[in-house]
Amino acid sequence: MASEGRPWVERYRPKSIDDVASQQHAVDVLRKALSSTNLPHMLFYGPPGTGKTSTILALARQLFGPELMRSRVLELNASDERGISVVREKIKSFAMAAVSAPDPRFPSPPYKIVILDEADSMTQDAQGALRRIMEQHSRITRFCLICNYITRIIEPLASRCSKFRFRPLDIASTEARLAHIAEAEGLQLSPEIIPALIRASDGDMRRSITYLQSVARLATARGGDVRSMSAATVSELAGVVPTDVIESLAQSIGINSDESMSTAAGSDFDRISRVVDCIVREGYSCMQVVLQLHDYIITHPLLNARQKAQCALQLGSTDKALMDGGLESLQLLSLSLALHQAVRSP
């Protein structure tokens, strides 16, 4: 089969908007637009892997059919093609082109659709030029902007679109989708695998499906059964830091420990430094440690609001330093010492 070599993310992408999981508000509105074929400009925003691109592609497929989509739908990734030249040349020429003949088997409304994925990566000038094109050619062209951060879309552009917020998928919907894919692929999973996939993907359906495919491939490569794969295997494939490592670091910082520990195990600096050195030697991603440490601290029942706020400031500063290319071992040690001071304050 031609689809055998395709990633599961593409193979199991929703074919219609009714297949889109856990986005009931967007699905209800778009279903009405399907029946009336009167589609506004749209702005889909929300976290990655929540079905934004899949929803608009499924809608376009239902409107035009697979054949007519080739001439009626222009899909661009704005993170690659985000300059004003692309807006003026590629998008404008497509928007002003005549609408091709309809397909009688589908609604085929008299307009085209331009899909701009990751539109929050577009420059300010490009967004300004796009605003004018949306005004001039709205009769025969509809635009769908897709982004993770709506605050990066200029207000004149956002105000011309109907906004749809895509939420992280709930656990039940994700479980059902993963179970469906596993059944379609003939996989028999151990009970702990699907919860482990959901924890590792953090509400991102695309990541959870990719991890599931990786687990299946690993089991095949080892000549075993997928049922032999454990939750620890999923964490390893996903690059998630084991819980006991995070708890060990938190304890060295001073969370979940009493005052007698510092005198029994040497100075605070030595204790924290040993744990940080161990994490660095194991090769764990410092960025991943920061993300998981954030969740651990913010949800910790024994820390008060002031302590959590101070910790959040330190975690944010370290995240920025790592994004700017800071040395991971030094940043993690500095963060751990700063968090130690924060949790000791009343």
UniProtKB/TrEMBL annotation:
Stated family? Belongs to the activator 1 small subunits family.
List each copy of the AAA+ ATPase domain by range.
Answer: 38-169
Principal location: nucleus
| Biological process, per Gene Ontology | DNA repair; DNA strand elongation involved in DNA replication
Q: Name one GO molecular function term.
A: ATP binding
Name of the molecule in the record: Replication factor C subunit 2
Extract the Pfam families matched here: AAA, RCF1-5-like_lid, Rep_fac_C
Where does it live in the cell?
Answer: Nucleus
- Report one GO cellular component: Elg1 RFC-like complex
Identify the gene encoding this protein. Answer: RFC2
Q: Which InterPro entries match?
A: AAA+_ATPase, ATPase_AAA_core, DNA_pol3_clamp-load_cplx_C, DNA_Rep/Repair_Clamp_Loader, P-loop_NTPase, Rep_factorC_C, RFC_lid
Which terms are listed as keywords in the entry? Answer: ATP-binding, DNA replication, Nucleotide-binding, Nucleus
